[in-house]
Amino acid sequence: LTRLASNFDVEPNLHPVSDAERENMIDKPAFGQVFSDSMVTMRWRDGSGWSDRQVKPFGSLNISPAAAVLHYAQEIFEGLKAYKRQDGSIWLFRPDANAERFQDSAQRLSLPNLSVEDFIGSVAALVRQDAQWVPSRREYTLYLRPFMYASEAFLGVRSPKQVDYCVIASPSGPYFTGGVKPVSIWVEDRWFRTGPGGTGYAKCGGNYAASLVAGNRGTDHDCEQVCFVDAASKTYLEELGGMNMFVVHRDGHIETPCLTGTILPGVTRRSLIELLNDRGLKVCEMMIRMDDLVNDIRSGDVTEIFACGTAAIVTPIKRLKSSNFDVTVATGEAGTLTMQLREQLLGIQLGEVDDSHNWMWRV
Ligand code: COI
């Protein structure tokens, strides 16, 4: 990572946050509310490719009101975390997987390709510069948010000739306040996140924008997250507003929606499938009918449901609610396998559990 990070020039920060203020900010931050001293920027121009690799003080972006992103939403992003271990070392979890997904997202949104080297180098350069911003409290991390957008000032609808890339870092605590408390999910029947041939598999801002009205309906029904079904048949379970879902059955088998192109291929999702396979547990990636799921919860055949994602880690789900049903998963408590997986994954990230898949990268 030293070599990759060294491609980025560091501009001195003349006004960093004071030590005392920073310590206060990273002590018990909420999710995504405060930001570190620095950011990375890089620019792409048609014909000359990527240049101007810089780490500089965190601050406002200079963007034309005519920039294509502000009109046509040409934007993609990633989310990953830097973890501080007890010995003070700082690690990333599978940044190569995020880099590859970023490339897939870029292709779908007609944005330029960013090499895996530049993606990982930019993230490493920022984490090195702001190493003191990585919280050390368990479950608190430096959440990294790389993103790319069409910055060309042009109102015609076409692929852009100028694009900006940026990485910011946010010392963050758990995504859901209240620790690992099981959450309630609103199953949305009116609004859909995406459809066949759409942008569902890409991590683009528009997917999240499209999820908000449904999320608000969920909030009105006392639910922390919304769950989408497929837009084409309104039958199959897809994903939550920003997380994937797993269902554990009484006979021990586990189901998760298969990647049909309309759901996000989560890095945590993929990692949990591998960890479950290591345990000899069968994970069926399949189309899950919402009706069947509700019946199986009612009959007690489903013993656990959990959500997963970089921000959410592994979060137990206690209840599914919609205009037509309201069911509680088993006793409504966090499931045993859910909590074991959560501890195993966190353990790998914090260096307490053997990283047999070599997922961790030292910064
Ligand atoms: C993540 O889990 O990193 C996400 O991007 C989900 C959400 C915060 C948008």
Question: Could you give a quick summary of the protein structure above?
Answer:
The chain has helices at 2-5, 19-27, 68-72, 95-108, 116-129, 205-220, 267-278, 290-299, 336-349, and strands at residues 9-10, 38-45, 49-57, 75-77, 80-84, 90-93, 141-150, 162-172, 183-187, 225-229, 237-240, 244-249, 254-257, 283-286, 302-309, 313-321, 326-328, 360-362.
Measured between the Cα atoms of the first and last residue, the distance is 6 Å
The overall pLDDT average reads: 96
Helix and strand element order: HEHEEHEEEHHEEEHEEEEHEHEEEHE
Rg calc: 21 Å
Number of helices: 9
Protein name: Branched-chain-amino-acid aminotransferase
Keywords: Amino-acid biosynthesis, Aminotransferase, Branched-chain amino acid biosynthesis, Pyridoxal phosphate, Transferase
GO molecular function: L-isoleucine-2-oxoglutarate transaminase activity; L-leucine-2-oxoglutarate transaminase activity; L-valine-2-oxoglutarate transaminase activity
InterPro entries: Aminotrans_IV (IPR001544), Aminotrans_IV_CS (IPR018300), Aminotransferase-like (IPR036038), B_amino_transII (IPR005786), BCAT-like_C (IPR043132), BCAT-like_N (IPR043131), BCAT_family (IPR033939)
